[in-house]
Amino acid sequence: MSEAPDAAYVDGALAVQTIKLLDSYKNQKTKPFFLAVGFKRPHLPFTAPKKYWDLYDSSKFEIAGFQGDSKNGPRIAYHSSGELRSYITPEISYEVSENKRVILSETFQKKLIHGYYAATSFVDAQIGKILDKLKATGLDKNTIVVVWGDHGWHLGDHGLWNKHSNFEQATRSPLIIYDPSIKKQIQVTSPTEFVDIFPTLCEASGLEIPSNLDGVSLLPLVKGEQLSVKPFAVSQYTNSNKTGYSFRTDRYRYTVWIEDKKSTDPIFQSDIFGEELYDYKLDPNETQNLSEAEDKSNLMRRFQKLAANYFNKQTETPLKNFIKKPQHKLKIGATLNHYGLNSKKEELFLKDFKFLTPANAAKQSRVHPQPGVWQWDRTEDFLEFSRANQLTLRIHGPVSPQASKWAKEDHRTAEELEAVMIDFMTASAKRYNQEPMVKHMDVVNETILPSGNWFGPKKGTNLWENPWLKMGFDKNGFPKYIVKAFEIATKYAPNVKLVYNQNAGMQKPMWDKLKETVLYLRSKGLRVDGIGWQGHLKLSRSTSQFTENTDQALKDLSELIDWAHSNNLDFHVTELDYKLTDQSNLASELQEQAQLYQKIINVLQSKVNTGVVTLNLWDLGQRLKKPNIYFQSIYDANFKPTPAYTVIKNAILNNQ
C-alpha cells in the first residue's frame, strides 16, 4: 500500500491506456470495435493505493464461520493454499496442519480479507473510469459491456485461501452484461458459464452463432424472456493426477473425481476416485458431503447419469480444427451367409438394416476353389441384393486364413504362394472397385496372434492356419503378403476404403503389432483407411476378458478407437456375436449378452464425433459351433427377438 496514484499500478495504467483507445474511437461511432481489458487484481498479491485500503477497517471484518473439512468430504478436494504461502513477508511464517491446511491467526486472516476488499475496490474504480469515458464519448449508446471474473476466491472458508477447488467460493464468479438496447435490469440466479459469453455477444451483435460451441447465448436471460438456459454449470480443477468435475444446478453441486483422465477420454467406474454432493438450500457452507447418504441415492444416480452424458458428449477439438466437421453416426449392420438370401434371415435383415457384410462369400476358398476355377456367383448375388435394396456393402477378408486348400498345400513355395495371392487379390480389388455400393473391404484378416506373434502356417490343409506367411518378410521384418496385399488394393481399389481386420480380444501385444504395421504400410505410401476388430465374445480365452474383466476390456477398446481416430482411421467392429455354453440357463445368458452389447455400444457411440465407427453383427440368429455350443446374435433358434435385439434396435433408432 502506498500514496502513489492509481496509474502507478499496472491495473491503473491499463485503465489509462483503455481510455486513450476509447478517445480514438469517439469519432468513429459506426465502426465496430471489440476491446478486451484484463485487470490483474484482486489476484494475489493484494496491492492497491492506500486510499482503497482506507475505505475499510480490518477489525470489523468477520472471518469465515466454517473453516473445517466437510463431513465425509474426500481429502483430494482440499489443498494447503500453496499460492498464498508463496508470498513471503517478514511478519508471518506459514504453518500447515496435519490435514494439509494452512494455519493463520484471526488477525492475519482479517488483514488478508482487508487486502482483498481494497484490491477489489481499486479495480472497481478503474472499471468506473472506463465506463465514464464510454458515456462521455457517446459510445455507451451502441456498445455492449460485459464485466466478469475468471473465478472466485476462498477467504478462509474450508480453511482454504486463493482458488484451486471446486467449492462454491472458488467457482462462483461475477457476470454483468449491459446491452444498451435493453432498458430493464434483470437479476439472473440460474446456472450460467463463461463459455456462454461468446455466443451471447454473437447474438447481441447480430452475428451468426457458430454451431460447434459448448456455450449458449444468455440473451434470453438478459431480456427476461427465460429464467434458465441450461440445467447446470460445469467447473473443473486438477489436484495431482486427479481432476474433479463439478456440476452445479440451482440447488446442488455434484463433483466427481477422476484419476488419470481428461473429460474427452472414456470414463469408467474404475476411474472414479471420489464423489461429493452438497445441498445449498440446507447447507450453504458445504459442511456435509451427501454422496453416500442413503436418502440421497436416487439423487446421486441422477447426477451420475448427468455426468456420464456430459463426458460422452465431450470431444477433442483443437483450435486448428475449429471449423465444424461432419458429424458421424454409428453405422450398424449385419452379415448374411449366402444361404440366408431368399430366407427368413433376409426378411429380418431388411426389416432393420442397410449395411451388409457377406459372411465369407468373398474369401479365396469360395471364389477360387480350384486352379483355373473362379466362382463369383455368390458375391454377385450379394451385389445384386445390395443394388435392389440400396444397401451399403462391406467385403470381408479376401486375404485371410480361409485360403483354398489347393493353394495352401504344404509343398507350395513362397514364390508359388505369392503368385496365387497376387492373382486373387488383384481380381478382387478390380471387381469390387467398380461397384458403387461397396464402401469398405478387408484387405487382410486375422494376421496376428494374441501374443503379438505373426499367425503362420501349419501342416496339412485342414487346420486353421495362415499359409501366406510362408511368402516371407521384407527387409524391415514385415510379412511380404501384407505389404503386397495393400500395394494391390491401393492401386486397384481407389474407390473402396481399405481395412486391416483382426480377431481375438484386446490383447496389447497384438494391437501394438497391428498399429506398428499400419503405420509402416502408410510410411510406404500405401493406403490403410480403417482397422477392424472381430468381436466373437467368449469364443476363446482371448475374448473372454469381455465377461471376466469387462471394465478393463471396454477401456482397452475405447483407447484402441481413440488411437484409430487420432490416426485418421475408421474403426469397425466386424463380427459381433456371443458364445452360449449353458442351454439350461439360457434366459440368464441372453440377458448377460444384452447387457454386454449395451456397454460396447456405449463405447462406440461415445466415439462417433471423432471419426467413423461401424458395428456388424455376425449372423442374425443362432448358429451351432459344436454340440451344445451356440453362437448367438439377436434372434433365437426360432427367429424370435432376444434381449440383445432390443439393444441393437434402440441403437439403430438413436442413429437415424
Question: What is the count of structural domains?
Answer: 3
Look at the structure and give the CATH class of the largest domain.
Alpha Beta
- Any idea of the CATH topology of the largest domain? TIM Barrel
Question: Helical percent range?
Answer: 25-40%
Characterize the main sheet: 8 strands, parallel, barrel
Summarize model confidence as the mean pLDDT.
91
As a whole number of angstroms, the C-alpha radius of gyration is 33 Å
Q: Give the neighbour order of strands across the main sheet.
A: 11-12-13-14-15-16-18-19
Q: Can you count the beta strands?
A: 21
- Low-confidence stretches are 315-326
CATH architecture descriptor name of the largest domain: Alpha-Beta Barrel
Please count the helical segments.
18
Keywords:
TIM Barrel, 33% helix, single chain, 656 residues, Alkaline Phosphatase, subunit A, 16% strand, alpha/beta, Arylsulfatase, C-terminal domain
Overview of this structure, please?
The chain has helices at residues 10-25, 50-53, 82-85, 106-136, 168-171, 197-204, 219-222, 297-313, 344-352, 364-367, 377-389, 414-433, 480-492, 508-523, 545-548, 550-566, 586-605, 643-654; strands spanning 95-96, 102-103, 145-148, 154-155, 161-162, 175-178, 233-239, 242-248, 252-259, 272-279, 331-336, 355-358, 392-395, 438-445, 497-502, 530-533, 536-537, 570-580, 613-617, 622-626, 629-632. The chain is built from 18 helices and 21 strands. It has an 8-stranded parallel beta barrel with strand order 11-12-13-14-15-16-18-19, surrounded by 7 helices. A 4-stranded antiparallel sheet has the order 7-8-9-10, covered by helices on one side. The two termini are 65 Å apart. The protein folds into 3 domains: 6-188, Alkaline Phosphatase, subunit A; 233-313, Arylsulfatase, C-terminal domain; 330-654, Alpha-Beta Barrel (TIM Barrel). Helix 12 packs parallel to helix 13 (480-492) and helix 17 (586-605) runs parallel beside helix 18. It is of the alpha/beta class and 656 residues long.
